[in-house]
Amino acid sequence: MTLTSPDFPHDVAAVREATDRLLVSVSKLDDAAIGEPSLLAGWTRGHVLSHLARNADALGNLLTWARTDVRTPMYAGPEAREADIERGADRPLAAHLEDLKESAARFDTAMDALPESRRAYEVEMRNNVVERADRLPLRRLAELELHHVDLGVGHTVDQLSPAFVDSELAFLATIKFAGHPDLPALELRTDDGRRWRTGRLGTGAGAEASPVVVTGSAAALVGWLTGRGEGSKLDSHGSVLPAVPPL
After folding, report:
1. Nearest to 23 by CA among 118, 124, 93, 116
2. Given CB 3.0 to 4.6 Å as the disulfide criterion, which of 12, 34, 67, 91 pairs with 95?
């Protein structure tokens, strides 16, 4: 199975809904909780929230690039990205909430401003990844949904919307990990019969004779592939469940 064409209006609406859910969860925290560890090693909840706000602005830069045809990178550079996250991590809850709302509003404006004629325009993300402008809302949606889980506030992979899970699973299998040299050849199978091939592909030296088959729910597969689940709900049919490279 392959990726379906983006449904830009649907994806824009999904981003707004995911943002609202995130803000509800964050608003229930307090200043002490912001400084507590998140589910991401080395990051507090404040780091996660600071990253989410800056990511909204970074992806907004790419939408501006697509709209104007003027190169506008996500970040000034890797060091600037990390410094921005660190600088904002220790702020009180009220400052995080204000930043999340304002950066989300800027991203909303950038999505609304992208003409239909520019949606197929290609921009360059971090690490030289090329992406179409009409897939940037899906990129933002993944950040919102997965980092909502990382906050450790009770929002789990099993609570992710089926539409997002299906879209993310297809992306991970057909783009993110397709041909990845550090992931053995896999055949992913969902309980409802869908299948993807990913990981090391081909028949050259070092290629596996047959892929490791991994079966489970779409949510369990997404959780494992994104590092948000250890794979206990998956069936690897007698093979050792491979370690997945970090995103």
Report:
1. 93
2. 91
